[in-house]
Amino acid sequence: MDNQEELEFKKSYPYIFSFFYLAQGLYNGIQYIVIPFWLISIMTIDLAVILGIFSITVIPWALKFLIGLVNDKFGSERFGRRKLWILIFGIYAGIWFIITGFTIDLQSTDTILDYILLCALMWNIGIAIADTSLDGLILDVTPKENLGKVQGYTWAMNLFGNAGGGIILGAVFLAFDAIPLLFVFEGFLLIISCIFPFYVKERPIPEDIQVWSNMKEIVSKGKNWKVFSFSFLDSIPYGVVTIAYTILILLYAPKSPISGPVTSLSLEGVALEAFLIYVLLGAINGGGVILGSIVTGRIADKNRRLAVYIANIGYIPFLIICFLFRGPYILGGIMIFLLGASQGALTASFQSIRGDLSKQYPELNSTYFAIVISCLNLGQSVGMATTSVLITAFSSIYDEYYLTFFWIMLIMAGIQFLSFLIFKTINRKEYEHKHILKKHNIIQ
Fold first, then answer.
1. Can you give the residue ranges of every domain in the chain?
2. Model confidence over 191-212: pLDDT tens digits?
3. What is the rounded CA–CA span in Å between residue 286 and residue 108?
4. Is the predicted pLDDT of residue 358 greater than 80, yes or no?
5. How many other C-beta atoms are found inside a 10 Å radius of the C-beta of residue 207?
């Protein structure tokens, strides 16, 4: 079979991909939702310290381009280029989750932060490699007319696992004082999710993959650097906005369960009661993400650029004005739903275009997409590290967290707008559907 020949895209494939992303979403929920709240519940901690830990643990994701190069070049004649990488490193991450679950209770408050940093690095190494390989598999087998929908579904499941699974399961396990078992559960779920991709039929491995010549072509074209640049900038706000805004809602709600300045957060009363509020806000945010991802993914399958415009028009103004909405929980719930919807829309619309552009390099599509994702994750790491510094700096000036939050979000809105402006400079011929280009007389 010719390597460029279209494979049959079976109806089961989106479900296989989505299940992997569900497990990955739960990992995100544990890392970014359960662990911060759990730490606040067992010790007094600076929000900047939590963000500082995250900025280190996501470093493996910034190296995805190296993973993609290896994954594109080396594979198995029997199992294909992608599947063994998914299985081996998915099991690696799963085992480290299980180890964490059985050993976390052995740590004291003096060592817990260092131990979480170590374990989280191990999770991220395994999942980053497995995720890069699955990205390549999706790009290998998914036709252009289905790519927006598949990206929408997979990211919706990722974010459902994050907000829904991470928070709801976090509440259940916290209720039974069994957070370590949540790590064990996630470990087994990851291992199972990495088995199902073996049912996806891959193309044969190309006989002679010109890695360096293709890589030279990728890095020598200005359009690709535009993609890398807007992707890097786009992700800087993404990793911090949800956490920062949730803290804003909790701090200024009536009878707030969190006390102290943002540089010394602690919980008052029963941790489970406070976490239930966190559960509700996270579930609402997750509902918005799912809706935004699916709806915008379908729009992107008809008009790529329109989907990007809709997402940014919703997201950028939100960042500027959201500090005003910090009162009753019902108001915070409405706003965090809108935040989720705009974040889901951004992800689905931009990921479709990134996938389109990576298909221009069929031998190195995983590498190209991995470079883009490396830029995204480097941006996320920079965003968290920068926000950690900004919180410390602005908190020395302002006593009220909402003022610190306002200036940080204003900076993030400016970064997001710059990302959008760079995206606009990319020629629509590189990613848009042919019927849209013909409609606007861009092609004949």
1. 13-202+211-439
2. 999 999 888 887 766 666 666 6
3. 33
4. no
5. 6
Collapsing DSSP to helix, strand or coil, 55 comes out as: helix
Contacts of residue 260, defined as CB under 8 A and 6 or more positions apart, other chains included, come to 44, 266
The span from the CA of 174 to the CA of 193, in Å, is 25
Contact status, residue 286 vs residue 156, Cβ threshold 8 Å: no
User: Average of pLDDT values for 97-124?
Assistant: 88
349 pLDDT band (50/70/90 cuts)? confident
> Which residues pair with residue 113 across a beta bridge?
none
Identify which of 233, 246, 338 has the alpha carbon closest to the alpha carbon of residue 292.
Answer: 338
- What are the pLDDT digits (tens) for 121-157? 999 999 988 988 888 888 878 887 777 778 778 877 8
- For 65, residues 6+ apart whose C-beta sits below 8 A from its C-beta are 367, 370, 371, 374
- Calculate the alpha carbon distances from 179 to 38, 61, 100, 172, 269 in Å: 9, 25, 11, 9, 19
**Segment holding 237, helix H or strand E:** helix 222-252
Distance separating alpha carbons of residues 129 and 153, to the nearest angstrom: 21
**CA distance linking residue 278 with residue 272, whole number of Å:** 10
Residue type, 344: G
Q: Could you give the angle at the alpha carbon of 289 between the alpha carbons of 306 and 162, nearest 5°?
A: 140
Domain 13-202+211-439, what architecture? Up-down Bundle (1.20)
3-state secondary structure of 400: coil
Q: Which residues of 255-273 are buried (b: 16+ CB within 10 A; e: fewer)?
A: eebbeeebbebebeeebee
Please tell me whether the overall predicted TM-score, pTM, comes out greater than 0.70 for this model. no
At residue 67, does pLDDT exceed 90?
no
User: Could you tell me what percent of the chain has a pLDDT over 70?
Assistant: 84
3-class secondary-structure state, position 307: helix
Which residue in 84, 200, 192, 184 sits closest to 133, CA to CA?
Answer: 84
pLDDT confidence of residue 422:
94
Provide the 10 A C-beta neighbour count for residue 305. Answer: 19
Helix (H) or strand (E) holding 337: helix 329-358
Question: Do 194 and 86 form a contact (C-beta atoms < 8 A)?
Answer: yes
**Does residue 267 carry a pLDDT above 50?**
no
The neighbouring-strand residues paired with 265 are 45
Tell me what the mean pLDDT of segment 102-124 comes to: 87
Greater pLDDT, 282 or 188: 188
Instruction: Assign 219 to helix, strand or coil.
Output: helix
Question: Can you read off the two tokens belonging to residue 408?
Answer: 């940080």
Q: What Cα–Cα distance (Å) separates residue 344 from each residue in 164, 254, 357, 358, 423?
A: 14, 29, 20, 21, 18
